Amino acid sequence: ELESPIVRKDKRVRIQVKGTPATLELLVPNLKQKMEIMLCRTRSHEGHLNYNTPLPHPTEECIFVLQGKMEIELAKEIHILNEGDSIYFKGVLLDGFRAIGDEELVFISAITPPTF
To answer: Tell me: the pLDDT tens digits for 68-90?
Structure first.
């Protein structure tokens, strides 16, 4: 039986990132493909990075901010992304990111190859 290429809003796989307020929703039917796309939601986490764990393999990633403000650190350089901004980078450069401000940070992340 063929798997549907459509992922309905109420059928998304949801992942809670342990130790953070981050929630991820897969926007792809599965992780058997060459790309992973996620809708991510998080809030400021007591000034800590929301993500600072090295990825298990080399990746490329594009992030598009839908709402809020993100501070992302690549190779020890800080970048601030606002609503509507995007950034493309090699995963090995990612030191971490955080939501800044009071508003919820909502962004789409496309990663290849998949990390989960």
So the answer is: 999 999 999 999 999 999 999 99
Task: Give just the sign of the alpha carbon dihedral 67, 28, 97, 21.
Answer: positive
Amino acid letter, 94: L
* Side-chain-facing half-sphere of 9: CA atoms under 13 Å: 0
Coil, strand, or helix at residue 93? helix
Contacts 24+ apart (CB under 8 A), 15-21: 15/116, 17/50, 17/51, 20/45, 20/50, 20/51, 21/45, 21/50
Decide: helix, strand or coil at residue 52.
coil
pLDDT digits (tens, 9 = 90+) for 8-44: 999 999 988 777 788 899 999 988 889 999 999 998 8
